[in-house]
Every structure is written in C-alpha cells, then in structure tokens.
Amino acid sequence: MAPARIRSAHMTQTSNPPPVKVSAVVGLLVFVEITSGLIQGMMLPITPAIGAAHGVSNASLHWVSAVQLLSAAICVPIFARLGDMYGHRRLLRISLLFLLAGSALVAWASSFELLLVGRALMGPMSALLPLEFGIVRSRLEPERARSAIGMLVGSLTLGTSLGLIVGGVVHTVLKDVHLTLTVPVVMTALCVVVVAFWVPESVERAVASIDWAGAAALSVGLVTLLLGIGDGSAVLLGAAAAVLALWAWIELRAEHPMVDVRNLLRPRLTGLYVASFMLGFAMFGAQTASATFMASVPEKVGYGFAFSALSLALMMIPSGLFAMAGASAMARIGTGIGHDATLLLGLGLTAAGYLLVAVLHANPAQFLATTALVSLGTGVALASIPALIAERAPITDIAISTGMYNTFKTLGGSVSGAVFAGVLSTMVIEGGTSPAESGYVTVWLICAGASVLAVLFLLAVSRRASAPVPALPVKES
Fold first, then answer.
1. Residues 357 and 403 both lie in one domain
2. pLDDT digit string (tens) for 121-139?
3. Which parts pass through the membrane (predicted)?
C-alpha cells in the first residue's frame, strides 16, 4: 500500500489535554445546534414577508433557500476538512462568524440581491454539526460521544420546529421583517461568545496539505448536481456526473486527498452513506407534501385540514419533540440491542410510520399520531448514522466523514423534492390542477419504500462485511 493511503495514521496530538466536563462539551454545543435549527426554521414562515419587503415575486423567493443550500454544498466539505487539519473548535468559531455576518446582512439588507449574499455567507452553518461531532468524538469516550451526538442531532431538530413558531409569532408581534430577522443575529452572537470562551478544542489533527483541486472539483460537482436536480436538466446532470468523476480521479491520485474515496467505498461506511441518502429522501421529501396536505381545504379538494401557517407550525412541534426523544435515546437503545440494530430499528419505525400515514390521515389526530411515529424513527436514525460514521472513520477524518453524511442526506432530499413535485403535478384531481389525495398517498408510500431499501442495503452490506475470507488453496509439495 502506498504511503499516501495510510495518512489516517499520521496525526498530531496535543500532549496531556486538560480534562473537560461532559456538560461543557455537550450542553454548550446543544445551545449552538438549537440556534442553528431556530435560524433554519424561522425562514419558512417569514419568507413571504421577505418577498413583500423587497418587492420580489414568489417565483424568485425560492432563491432564499436555494442560495444557502448551494453555499452549504461548497462549504461543508471544505470547512469539515479544515477542521480535521487545524482544529474543529477553530473552524467552528470561523463558521459562526460567517453565520453572524450573513445573518446581519440578511436582516438589514437594503436589496434582495444583498440578502442573497447574506444567505450565501450563511452556508457554513451546515458545517457546524460535523465540526461538533469532531469535538465530542475527540474529547469523550465512545459511549458518551454517542449520547452527545444523539443530543446534538435532536437539538437541531427541535430548534427547527421551535423556529417555525418563533418566526411566525415574532413577526406577528413586531410586524417588521427586519426586526424579526434580528433574532438570529442576537442568537448567533451568543453562540460566538459561548464557543470562543467555553467549548474545548479537539485533540487529534490530520497531517495533510489542503487539496484545493479536489475541493474545487467537489464543490462544482455538487452545485451542478443540485441545480440539475432542481431544474430537471439532463445537461446539468450530465455535467455534474462528469465533474464528480473528475473529482474521484483527482482524489485517488492526491497524496493528501480532501476526501479519501477509498475510505468512502469501505462497505461498512458505504452502507451508512446510502442510508443517509435514503433517509434524506424520505424525510425532506415528505415535509413539503405533508405541509401542503394539511393546509388543503377539504371543501375544495376533499382532503386536508385547512390549517393556517400558525396551525401548521404548532402541528410540527410534537414531531420535533418525538424526533429529539428518538435521537437522545439512540445511545441507550444501542447499549441494549447494538448500535447497528438501533439504526435498523429507526429506519423500520420510519417505514412503518409512513405506511400508517398513507392509511390513516383522515383527521388531525390520526395524522399527528402517525407522523409522530415517523419522527421518532427518523430521530433514532438521524443520530445513529453519524455516530456510527464517527466510530468507523479514521479519527483524523471525523468531520469530513460526517460532513459527507450531511451531503448525502441533502442530495437525497433534493432528489425527492424533484420526484415528489412530479408526482403531485401528475396525479391531480379530475378536471382540476390540485393534487389528488392519491398523489399524497403515493408520496408517503415511496418514503416508506426508501426506508425499507435502506434497511435491505444495510443488511446486505453487513453480511458481506462479516463474510469469512476464503482461504487460499495450499499447494502440495
């Protein structure tokens, strides 16, 4: 094996790092993740107000989320890898400074174009979680690290649900979109102080040079892929495939690759990345469909609950709580049944929940109960996957390995968004343009199928990884 391929063993380590309390590592980072979720959740209810304040059409408002998503596709791999090399807390601080600058620009932008620049600056927000995983994996023993990862994932989910409420309520009270968007600025400023003074640094460092060619190829490939998925452009998708193939070629030949492609293709990691894609496909794809189903007026289309924006936000709070409960319980469940089995349990609960939603969605009580099961399952799975990746990846590649988990999950959501938009635009009420109830049922069944496929793939990979290596025949003398 060439020396370049054993670089994971080449690391530096601070001598005798000072001991830290678990609460110092976990509690403060939980605050950061709740803030991150709050910022993400707040944007949804106030997006129409942003359009009104800046005089842009509803069609143009999709760039508010699209720009941040594209920026994240570039920032997550780069910031995660730099964190592995130079310290996860150091890059966490830098990410929060970018988020603070972007949030301030979004809040007080004098034009829509400046607001989009601010959203681009907020791209490193998606790198916060993998950088935090690097800290807890480095400073805590495995069992406590698993619990910490579960709490961080659950806090992000809960923060997103709370953000829906906070955004709607604060804007209703203040009646000014600029003042409402000041809330993320204040919260981020508090996070900057917390991380600057009280969060400990990780211990290990990857000894490597910055692979700028690999970073550039991966960034261009991911952005082109996301644009191609969103637009349904075969040309963009083909270009993305070509650039990503070039990226793999670059990484296989680099002395210190940004992402070790061979490491990604290890069976026990490949299965987790496929599960990440499938989970993102099911989770993100169903969110918009479920929201539009609940907002539909039954007198007009024969289904739905005619929920207002505030009612939709309130309906999502229990789901956030169940997801946080599932994520927080992941480590304890894993201690009892094994951590691989815990992931399979989470995906199984997710599949069962979507199957039940497809059957039981006639009233809000049924919908709340069935989606709660979905949220419980996704919470367990969302925490299990990065915890397993953090344990199986080389210690010097924690942030980049878990960052790729986030990338695969995002890609899954992007693909399902395009797929489900096609399903709901094709399966419409006879003589009308609104989606038929069967269209929503189809979406939920596809989500259940994606979860089942993830389970089957993980089982197949597990059997392959545990299969004994056949002995070489002994040559008789």
1. yes
2. 999 999 999 999 999 988 8
3. 20-39, 59-79, 91-110, 148-171, 177-199, 233-250, 271-293, 305-329, 341-361, 367-389, 410-429, 441-461
Scored b (16 or more CB within 10 A) or e, 161-188 reads bbbbbbbbebbeeeeebeebbbbbbebb
Contacts of 222 (CB under 8 A, 6+ apart): 73, 74, 77, 240, 244, 407, 411
Separation between Cα atoms, residue 232 and residue 348, nearest integer Å? 31
The verdict on residue 15 lying in a domain is no
Q: What is the rounded CA–CA span in Å between residue 171 and residue 180?
A: 6
pLDDT band, very low/low/confident/very high, at 273 (cuts 50, 70, 90): very high
Token pair listed for 171 = 């804007």
Same domain, 222 and 321: no
- Specify which residues 428 forms β-bridges with: 435
- Does one domain contain both 180 and 233? no
Residue 14 falls inside a structural domain: no
Q: Is there a single domain that holds both residue 382 and residue 419?
A: yes
Q: How far is CA 409 from CA 124, 250, 415, in A?
A: 16, 24, 10
319-341 per-residue burial string, b: 16 or more CB within 10 A, e: under 16:
bbbbbbbbbbbbbebbeeeebbe
Name the residue among 201, 427, 452 with its Cα closest to residue 348. 452
Running DSSP on this structure, what letter comes out for residue 59?
T
- Read off the tokens for 427: 């399966």
One domain, residues 199 and 137: yes
By the 8 A CB rule, do 158 and 320 touch?
Answer: yes
Torsions phi, psi for 198 (to 5 deg): -125, -15
Confirm if 203 and 243 have CB atoms less than 8 A apart. no
> What 3-state class would DSSP assign to 202?
coil
321 with 224, same domain?
Answer: no
- The answer to whether the beta carbons of residues 53 and 177 sit under 8 Å apart is yes
211-215 average pLDDT score = 90
